[in-house]
Amino acid sequence: MPKAVANRFNKNHEPPVTKASTKKTGGSSSTPGDRAQNPLFNTERFGQHILKNPQVAQAIVEKANLRPTDKVLEVGPGTGNLTVRILEKAKNVTAIEMDPRMAAELTKRVQGTPEHRKLEIVIGDFVKADLPYFDVCISNTPYQISSPLVFRLLSHRPLFRVAILMFQREFALRLVARPGDGNWSRLSANVQLYAKVDHIMKVSKNSFRPPPQVESSVVRIVPIDPPPPVKFEEFDGLNRILFSRPNKSCHASFGHKGVLEMMEANWKTWCSARNEVYP
């Protein structure tokens, strides 16, 4: 995986202010339509929707049960509606933000406050960035990195204590599904091998700016410590076969010609790596 270019925020990232932009976005006379055109809140490029409901933001932070000694990782802080609440309770926060304009807004928001020293902003792609040590992860997750975010967190060492993550409702229901549930899937099985997952709360699409087309949910993920001695690649390979034909029996899935050929090739490789004779 290529190493991300992750830099701390500085003023060079701040978008230039022009007369046109000041006229369009400044003052209290701007309309909702004007605000939608404000490049600061044009989040389509990164798939992010700003959480604007203060009650939801406060509830998410409370569910994390933060301690004064906690180091928190926040993914996609946006304009900081969650961040400022986390800073009140945690030792420090590392916020990973893809959009430099959002980072500029967040920096401006905490500037001149005691919390300013407790915040570090990393501009870059969470999937590629080097992650620091953290006790708790909190995220209003951009939809397109939902699955990579979960597995990146579960593969991180040392293990964190808890993650409070907001996802699209459909994705969240697949995360928490149990065997026999209609939403039980390869994702459910892979995640629940390594963590306990609970659904915490539903979040209306009207709690965001701009509002997404779908509802959201908040889940709690607690890693199993110590993790089971199972290689993820092998377990995921097994699930890929089992869930490729959800309406078929396991016997039918493993009896498929392509699967049999793949298993035989893998068995030969396994024997060769251990200097054993293939029977």
Automatic annotation (TrEMBL):
Specifically dimethylates two adjacent adenosines in the loop of a conserved hairpin near the 3'-end of 18S rRNA in the 40S particle. The keyword Transcription does not apply. Residues 18-33 have a biased composition (Low complexity). Keywords: Methyltransferase, RNA-binding, rRNA processing, S-adenosyl-L-methionine, Transferase. Transmembrane segments: none annotated. This is rRNA adenine N(6)-methyltransferase. Gene3D superfamilies: 1.10.8.480, Vaccinia Virus protein VP39 (3.40.50.150). Its EC number is 2.1.1.-.
